[in-house]
Design goal:
single chain; alpha/beta; Rossmann fold; ABC transporter ATPase like fold; 17 helices; globular; binds zinc ion
Length: about 450
């Protein structure tokens, strides 16, 4: 809406800065967006876009790549130049060029799975714009649900299927959107919706507490010689209870300043200097590091330190595998992005023992991910599938569609022009479906690859 207003005003000499405008857009809608951005440029404006989207990069006049890694491993300029130069850059210089040039791509290291005779079928879906559709999802298979923005994907998958699954399999008290019946829940023990909701609203939750890694770390600290001598139990190393924490800030590490009519401000606790614990607790050291030092470490750093503790390494490995190696273990949940929260949830699922009878539902999991991270994510999802689970992903990302075992396409348009089932079947069949905008986008994308 804001962009449309800007286009209408016809200003020149303005700098426009956009952060991932392609999120949630079907490739077709994204093309329209790109035309608008090019139009702004042509009028004499400067457009700066932060993006992972391949088409946006191809349309850019100039690319600036930061890296090489994320967090503490990033922060350097890796490449500056035209997209054509970027494509010629070697993989040691640019992590983006080889993917743009298609000399590298997101690959599937697993076999395609075809449906057997087990199905999860939604009959008579009528919520919002869905036109009384019946859709069958194959069990034990990786399915990608596609369609232009507003075609009814989220309504079908989140509002109806995920809600009904949570109610039926997990005993949640949610009311699913309008539909006649869903058959096939007997193939599942539980449903897991890996969404982008925060992992906690309090600054006391963080990646370590969320993944239960913190419990293991506290046990390890309680086993240190000094802790044993002093009789410290694992609870001593919690910042939520009295005993080991700094009482001035009650383990927050920061003190809230009441700003009267303005938003609250925080300042570092002068007693513990942001370390959350009292002096005695911090004296206990594991390989020279206090519990506060460990919470300040990134996942990758902690993996080095705890390399001899298999159970800790296992958890850290799954966090690294979802591309969160740069995240600090004690980083407050309130500062994590939606994408980071989603990947943490996924890593928690991956660290559990796989029973092979789970239904996983993900909404645009590649949002905010570079190709290298998309590759990691796909490897993990296919691992879950190989263990016998069912994966249903809503996605606009063509790399993901291109690997899916099964594609369900809604459309043909958005809003009133949508709500129909356009295609359901193996991904390649989508290419010959004349009414599918997604099929056209995928065909065009593959053509790029062949060039
Ligand atoms: Zn304090």
């Amino acid at each position: 809406m804001r962009l449309a207003t800007q286009l209408g005003m016809g200003l020149t000499g303005v700098v426009y800065v956009l952060d991932e405008p392609s999120v949630g857009l079907h490739p077709l809608d994204n093309e329209r967006l790109l035309r608008s951005l090019v139009e702004l440029r042509d009028r004499g404006n400067t457009v700066v876009v932060v993006e992972h989207d391949e088409d946006t990069m191809r349309h850019a006049d100039w690319l600036i790549e930061l890296g090489p890694g994320a967090g503490t491993e990033g922060g350097r300029i890796m490449f500056e130049g035209t997209p054509a130069d970027c494509m010629r850059a070697s993989a040691s210089v640019s992590h983006t060029g080889p993917f743009l040039a298609r000399t590298m791509g997101v690959l599937k290291d697993a076999k395609d799975f075809a449906p057997d005779d087990r199905w999860l079928t939604v009959r008579g879906a009528k919520e919002h714009n869905l036109r009384n559709v019946t859709v069958a999802f194959p069990v034990g298979v990786f399915t990608c649900v596609t369609g232009v923005s507003g075609s009814g994907k989220s309504t079908l998958v989140n509002d109806i299927l995920a809600a009904a699954a949570a109610r039926r399999l997990n005993g949640a008290k949610v009311i699913p959107g309008k539909h006649k019946v869903i058959e096939g829940f007997d193939h599942f023990d539980k449903a897991v919706q890996v969404d982008q909701e925060p992992i906690g609203r309090s600054p006391r939750s963080n990646p370590a507490t969320f993944t239960k890694l913190f419990d293991q770390l506290r046990d390890l600290f309680a086993q240190c010689p000094l802790a044993k001598v002093r009789g410290y139990k694992a609870s001593r190393f919690s910042f939520n209870t009295r005993g080991g924490r700094c009482e001035r800030c009650q383990g927050d590490g920061q003190i809230r300043l009441d700003m009267q009519f303005m938003a609250d401000a925080y300042t570092e606790c002068p007693s513990c200097r942001g370390q959350r614990y009292n002096r005695e607790t911090l004296e206990v050291r594991l390989h020279g590091h206090s519990i506060a030092d460990v919470l300040a470490m990134t996942v990758s750093e902690a993996r080095q330190l705890f390399r001899n503790f298999p159970r800790v390494v296992e958890k850290l490995d799954t966090m690294e595998a979802v591309g969160l190696g740069y995240l600090a273990l004690g980083q407050s949940a309130t500062t994590l992005s939606g994408g980071e929260a989603q990947r943490l949830k996924l890593s928690l699922e991956l660290s559990k023992r796989q029973q092979g009878r789970s239904l996983y539902i993900l909404d645009e999991p590649t949002t905010g991910l570079h190709w290298l991270d998309v590759q990691r994510l796909m490897d993990l999802l296919f691992k879950l599938r190989d263990a016998g689970n069912t994966i249903i992903v809503i996605e606009h990302n063509l790399d993901v569609m291109n690997l899916a075992d099964w594609v369900i396409d809604l459309g043909p348009g958005g809003g009133r022009a949508g709500g129909e089932l356009i295609y359901a079947g193996p991904r390649d069949g989508l290419l010959s479906e004349p009414r599918s905008a997604t099929g056209q986008a995928l065909a065009k994308w593959r053509q790029h690859a062949a060039e």
